[in-house]
Amino acid sequence: MMLHGTMTINSRGHLEIGGCDTVQLASTFGTPLYVVDEELFRQNCREYYRAFTEKYGAEVIYAAKTLLTLAICRLVEEEGLGMDVVSGGELYTALQAKFPMSRVYFHGNNKSREELRLALEARVGRFVVDNLYELEMLNQLAGEMHSRADVILRLTPGVEAHTHEYIKTGQIDSKFGLVIENGQALSGVKLALEMDHIALHGLHCHIGSQIFKLDSYAHAAGVMMDFAARVARETGWVPSELDLGGGLGIYYAEGDQPRPVAEYADVIMRAVREKAMTHGLPVPRVIVEPGRSISGPAGTTLYTVGAVKDIPGVRKYVAVDGGMGDNPRPALYQSRYEACVANKAAAPAEEVVSIAGKCCESGDMLIWDIALPRVEPGDILAVSCTGAYNYSMSMNYNRLPRPAMVLVKDGRADIIVERETYADLLRNDVIPERLRKSRRLNVASAR
């Protein structure tokens, strides 16, 4: 496993993160356990801030869907970034963390009336409107509330990103945005400009996630600026903001080749500026939405090894006490991860095994065919780069409680998400009175 951030191997041969021995973390807090490297999370935020905000005056908004807790909100705020939320629940979390609402962008392809009302009451900085239905509803709601909604329109630029089919979003056949090519986008802009309670500020696109080829971003920026020029010619309106989404890829396993954030910023800004000059337009304020590239590398998940099953000549399965319940990504779209045996981090690899989860599904496999030191029950397995889309996509399949999460820095570990209990699993369960009555009757009959 590639070490990154504050990871190191201590004198006991154990993996250490943020100055904390991961074997001790597992003993103290139990497993599965999400571990967030605070210093690396902050460092990733600062890298974006330097590359985009300090150098170009662009705005960086953290994509909360990748990892969101009250403590994470505080880190993002302290590092000077805005926040992209996509649901009432994410917005509520930001509200409870007292995150500045002026720096919140509200995304989502099917916002409910209640969510829009909550966002209007909170006075979020921008609504990223996905479709005409939402635009009409937002205009009506804002009117009823004697307010005005600050809007960016999400468009579909028709750019094919080089990534997994499930995380492409910029192609024409997408559930997101108004398509440029067929005229929907232009109609949406004209409609927004006519509305009394909508203040249209700019345009938005997002082409996908886990992207390594920066030319995809340059192409998307060019398409968006060409469209901005067409809009200016037909309506006289010039977008003052251009949100180009996020999606920069990170290292998960061998073969991944992430690009430096500074290079990503230079490519985007060069493309926007060149197109602005070509069309005689002012350079809009650029906005980017990194998520995975901030939270992903900062997260590690610790598991305890249980059953070891060797099928001679076929495969050796090593089962851990978590799996698709705390990390559904391998089951959803064949995501790859690296890992090490945290209590044998300095030991050489001796065997090739496959890491199985404990859910009652054949597809609950975390890692296929990984070389590790000899693995035994009770060992602690550390899977790296699990900060993005792990906790946020976790579930209670098989009635498994979600893991705890700790924030580590300078030898200190603080709980930021408590471990769910079995009682938590039943908290919202209700037995209707008619079933209670039928049980009493059945008991009485049995007597």
From TrEMBL:
InterPro entries (UniProt xref): Ala_racemase/Decarboxylase_C, DAP_deCOOHase_LysA, De-COase2_C, De-COase2_CS, De-COase2_N, Orn/DAP/Arg_de-COase, PLP-binding_barrel
Species annotation: Desulfofundulus thermosubterraneus DSM 16057
Primary gene name: lysA
Domain Orn/DAP/Arg decarboxylase 2 N-terminal: 46-295
Pathway(s) annotated for this protein in UniProt: Amino-acid biosynthesis; L-lysine biosynthesis via DAP pathway; L-lysine from DL-2,6-diaminopimelate: step 1/1
Residues holding pyridoxal 5'-phosphate: G247, E289, P290, G291, R292, Y389
Swiss-Prot/TrEMBL catalytic activity: meso-2,6-diaminopimelate + H(+) = L-lysine + CO2
Positions annotated as active site in the UniProt record: C360 (proton donor)
Listed GO MF terms: diaminopimelate decarboxylase activity; pyridoxal phosphate binding
Protein's UniProt keywords contain Amino-acid biosynthesis: yes
Binding, substrate: R292, R329, Y333, E361, Y389
Keyword match Acyltransferase: no
PANTHER family the UniProt entry points to: DIAMINOPIMELATE DECARBOXYLASE, GROUP IV DECARBOXYLASE
Description of how the protein assembles with itself and partners: Homodimer.
Protein name: Diaminopimelate decarboxylase
